[in-house]
Structure formats: structure tokens, C-alpha cells
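Priority: medium. Attachment 1 of 2:
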């Protein structure tokens, strides 16, 4: 990992101050993601892609921690002691406390390789939860276009298509 990256706290990495609101953090992360997302470096040299990926992963970690009130409180406490990253075990504990006790364990995620396809899939899932099946279908169709031949995406698209026909 890049030594300079290892010396940055989450707030500095995202370019926000410690008193930033969740909305400010989300806004900052969008700008951060536009700059460091690995897909942006797809045609770059391997070393540059790996560096961008490492930076983006750390920024994603920062975003996850700073937008979760309990994890952020734990992080701020550790930061006061000079700890720049939240211990994964502490973050997991904060997440477990926040989750409903009867929630079933979720699988690691759908078998989608492309980051962009996964993003469209996740937006499609959100649209389905909101009952917007037409939008869900459009988003899943886009995900499948980004990752043609993905049986998982095709099966989900077929399910939504069937839902639209009823």
C-alpha cells in the first residue's frame, strides 16, 4: 500500500472536515469516486490501475465508516488516539448492533464482475424495492449490456420482465 495513503485519515482522504454532515460526506465521496474509480483507469498501466484501486478501496472504506453513525463514533474515538483506520472487528461490531437481530445472513453478493454492472444492478434492486419495475428493468438491462452473458443478471431481468407482464 502506498505509504502516503497509509498516513491519511478518512476525513482527509475524502477532503471533508471532522464536523462534516453525512450529506457532505456523500457529496465528497461522489467527487472522490469520479477521480479514483478503477474503471476510469481500465486502459492505464497495471501499476497505475493497482494504485487507483487501492486509493478507491480506502475511500470506500472511509465512506462506509463515516456515513454509519456508530462506526463513525468508534472511528472518531480511535482517531483521537492516533489510529487512522477503523479496526475491521470494531466496524463489524458497530454494524451488528445496528442490524436487526433476526436478519438472515446475506450472501457475499451477486456474481457480477464489472463494477459498473454491479452499480446498475444495485440501482435496479433499489428501484424494485420502491416498486418501480419499469426502471428496475431498464437498469438491469443496462447491467446485462455491460456484462453480456451473465446468467445471474439474465435471470433477474427475466424475473422483472415476468413481473411487468402481470
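Attachment 2 of 2:
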Amino acid at each position: 500500500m502506498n505509504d502516503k495513503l497509509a498516513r491519511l485519515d478518512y476525513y482527509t482522504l475524502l477532503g471533508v472536515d471532522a464536523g462534516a454532515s453525512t450529506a457532505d460526506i456523500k457529496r465528497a465521496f461522489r467527487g472522490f469516486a469520479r477521480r479514483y474509480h478503477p474503471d476510469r483507469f481500465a486502459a492505464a498501466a497495471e501499476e497505475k490501475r493497482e494504485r487507483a484501486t487501492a486509493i478507491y478501496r480506502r475511500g470506500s472504506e472511509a465512506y462506509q465508516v463515516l456515513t454509519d453513525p456508530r462506526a463513525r463514533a468508534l472511528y472518531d474515538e480511535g482517531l483521537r488516539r492516533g489510529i487512522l483506520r477503523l479496526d475491521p472487528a470494531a466496524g463489524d461490531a458497530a454494524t451488528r448492533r445496528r442490524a436487526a437481530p433476526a436478519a438472515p445472513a446475506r450472501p457475499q453478493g451477486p456474481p457480477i464482475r464489472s463494477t459498473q454492472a454491479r452499480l446498475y444492478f444495485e440501482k435496479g434492486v433499489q428501484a424494485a424495492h420502491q416498486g418501480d419495475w419499469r426502471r428496475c428493468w431498464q437498469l438491469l438491462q443496462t447491467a446485462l449490456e455491460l456484462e453480456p452473458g451473465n446468467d445471474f443478471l439474465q435471470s433477474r431481468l427475466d424475473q422483472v420482465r415476468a413481473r411487468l407482464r402481470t
